[in-house]
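thread: overnight batch results

M.L. [08:02]
morning all. the overnight job finished for the chain we discussed friday. pasting input first so we're all looking at the same thing
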Amino acid sequence: MDAQKVDMFIMNNGKFFESYQLPQIRERLMNADDSKWSMIQMTQFKDPTISLIISIIAGSLGIDRFMIGDTGLGIGKLLTCGGFGIWAIVDWFLIMGATKEKNIDKLQQVL
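M.L. [08:03]
and the structure it wrote out:
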């Protein structure tokens, strides 16, 4: 794939991934076919900041985990009222990383 396209993708979508993963993402995109470019461009990633805001507002209901696709954890948080509040507070620190991991998994599926 063209280096200019790859750099533009990383500039526009870098906030959706961990910073240490960006060189690996760049390398994988450079080795990818040009035919996958349209699929990569159309892929929607979850915003970690929005996940954090939702976690702070409604984390005890598990909505943050449902939003990123962790249905089992979302049901667990919903049934235990966020682990009696403790799990909800711990997720304030973990939800952004979990969102970025889900985003990298989604990108790997496209590639």
